[in-house]
Amino acid sequence: MNVRCNYCRQSFNLSRDYLADALAKAKESKQKTHSVECINCRKMIKVPVAQMKRYLPEPRSED
Ligand SMILES: [Zn+2]
User: Fold this and answer.
1) Number of CB atoms found within 10 A of residue 22's CB
2) Domain limits of the chain?
3) Ligand 1 centroid to residue 3 C-alpha, Å
């Protein structure tokens, strides 16, 4: 999933593994956004959880 920094306009990619981990944590703490550090300027960028979900379909049977 591609993310663009609002501060320096650097764009970078988040891996599926990263998204899976971030989504699990967001779910746990009931967050609607996930903060990711920009690889260039190191500011925190807020990524909507709903947007991440679109890139990472939930597993069909977890329970
Ligand atoms: Zn940046």
Assistant:
1) 20
2) 2-55
3) 10
